[in-house]
C-alpha cells in the first residue's frame, strides 16, 4: 500500500467508488481530505455521460465535498473531443442526457434527427423504442455508431441499472454495426487524463470498481490499479479475469491505511 500512497496522481472513478446515487460511500471524505492535504494531483474520471463537470461539482458539494470542477472529466467530454477531431462541424443524432448533448454542442457538433453523420448513445432516462428505430435507420443509412462507454450496468442506491453498453446493444444488433466506445478502457481517455494531470503513468494510480473498464484501462495503459469492492465487482469475480489489479480494497478509505 505504501507504493500506492506514494503516487503523485490519482485517477478515480465516481459511481461505485465515491457514491451510489446520492449516497456518499464510507471513507470518501477522509480520502478526499488526504488527497488535498498530501498535495496529490487527482482527477475524477467517470464513464458516465449524464452530467457536466459543474453538475458533478455541485453534486459532491451537496454531499459535503468541496472539489473544483477542473478535477472532473467525463466520457461525454471525451466523446465530443473525439468526434470533433474526426469530423469537424459534423452532426449527430443523440440518445443521452444534457451532459452529453451540451458537450457535443460546445465542441461544434450540431444535433440532427434527419440525416446525421453520427449516432451517439450515452446513459438516458428518455430511452424509447422510437429512439431505437431512428438510431437503427440512421446507422443503416451510413451514420457512424458511437457509445460514450461500454459499461453494461451501473450502481445506484436502488441496485444495478442498465448503462450505455446495454442501451446501445439493440441498435448494434438491429443495424448489424458495432459501436465504437470512447470511454474507459479506451486508451484515448487515459492519455487525456494523464495530460490533464500533468503526470507520467509511472507516477499515477487508477482507482475503480470495475474490472472490465477501470482496471483494464490501467493495465493496458501501464498505470497502477486499485480495485474497490464498493461498486460493481465482488472479490470472487476477480478470478474470472485474465488480469488482476495491484490492490483490492473494500473502499477508497482503505488507501489511507
TrEMBL record:
This is Ribonucleotide monophosphatase NagD. The keyword Metal-binding applies. GO terms for molecular function: metal ion binding; phosphatase activity. The gene is nagD. Keywords: Magnesium, Metal-binding. The active site is at 13 (nucleophile), 15 (proton donor). Belongs to the HAD-like hydrolase superfamily. It comes from Pontiella sulfatireligans. CDD domains: HAD_Pase_UmpH-like (cd07530). The lineage of its organism: Bacteria, Pseudomonadati, Kiritimatiellota, Kiritimatiellia, Kiritimatiellales. Divalent metal ions. Mg(2+) is the most effective. InterPro entries: HAD-like_sf, HAD-SF_hydro_IIA, HAD_sf. Mg(2+) binds at residues 13, 15, 209. It holds the Pfam family Hydrolase_6. Substrate binds at residue 184. Its cofactor is Mg(2+). NCBIfam families: HAD-SF-IIA (TIGR01460). The keyword Ubl conjugation does not apply. One of its GO terms (cellular component) is cytoplasm.
